[in-house]
C-alpha cells in the first residue's frame, strides 16, 4: 500500500475509490474495503482510499473535539494490515477545503485529482460545503460509476466508530473487540516524562498521544509490543490527578519483567481489560499501594489468559 500526503501527491491514471475517515478501521470498514477490492478487480483498477487529517469534526468543534479511536499512524497500520488497498490518500482537512462545493469536490478532487472511475461510499455519506453532496450527487457524475455500501451489522448491531467509542468509554472491551475484529490498540513513541514511576518502583514508558481526547480513560491490563518483544503490563491513560493539575491526557505503561531503554522507540499498546477508573490520592504512599494492587490484578488477568490459550 502506497501512502500519499497532500493534494499534489502522485496518483494512478485511474482507480476504484472509497472515501471516509475510517476511524478505527472496524469490521464495517473492512467489509467496504473487501467490496472495493472485488469491484476494482473486475474492472482492472487499483484500489484507493481518500481519508482526511485531522478528523473533520476536530475542525468544526475545536473547543470540544470528539474522541479519536486511532492516531493517523494506527489508521495507516490497520489499513495496510487488511492487504486490500493499493493507495491511501491523506488529504489535509481545513476550513477552506470544507468550503468546497459538492461539485467542486467531485471535479477537483475525485476526477482531476484522483482519476476515479469507480466510487464506493457508505449509504449515509455526505460531502461538500454544508454537506449538500450525497449518493445522488455522485451518481449523476458521468466520469465514474457510483455504488453505495449497505450497513454492516455484527451480531445484529451496526458496526460504527461511534458505537466502539461508547463501548471503550464504558470499559466494555469484548463489545469493542467484536466490532473492531481485534483488540483495541494505540501506537506511539516513548518520550521522557517526570520519571516519578521509577521512584515508586514502577518505571513507566510515557507514550506520546497526538490527540487531545482519547476514546478511553482509566487503568488497564495491556500487552505491549516493543523491539525487544511482547510484554504484559499495566497502563494508566488519563490526566494523572494525583501529581498533575493540567488537562492533557497521558498514556503511561509499566511493562512486567522488562529491563531496558525504550526512549524514542515506537511501541504498540494493546488494551485487554479495564481495572478501574482514574482517581486522585491524598499521598504518594496511597498511590503506590493502589499501583501495587493494580499490578497484581493485571498479572492475574494475564496469567488467566495464558492458561486459557494454552
TrEMBL record:
CDD domains tied to this protein: FAD_synthetase_N (cd02064)
Catalytic activity entry: FMN + ATP + H(+) = FAD + diphosphate; riboflavin + ATP = FMN + ADP + H(+)
Superkingdom of source: Bacteria
Record's signal peptide: none
Entry keyword set: ATP-binding, FAD, Flavoprotein, FMN, Kinase, Multifunctional enzyme, Nucleotide-binding, Nucleotidyltransferase, Transferase
Family designation: Belongs to the ribF family.
Protein name (Swiss-Prot/TrEMBL): Riboflavin biosynthesis protein
